[in-house]
Amino acid sequence: MCKDCGCVIAGQENHHHHHHDDHEHGIVHDHDHPHDNTTWSTTHQSAHETLHHNPQLNDAKTISIIKKILDKNDHEASHNRAHFDSHKVLGINLMSSPGSGKTTLLENLADMVDFKFAVVEGDLETSRDADRLKAKGINAVQIQTGSACHLDAFMVHKGLHDIKLDDIDVCFVENVGNLVCPASYDVGTHLNIVLVSVPEGQDKIAKYPVMFRTADLILITKTDLLPYFEYDIEKEKMEARKLKPNVDILEVNIKDKQSLQNVIDWINFKRKMR
Question: Which CATH number fits domain 37-273: 3.40.50.300, 3.40.50.11240, 3.40.50.720, 3.40.50.2300?
Answer without folding.
Answer: 3.40.50.300
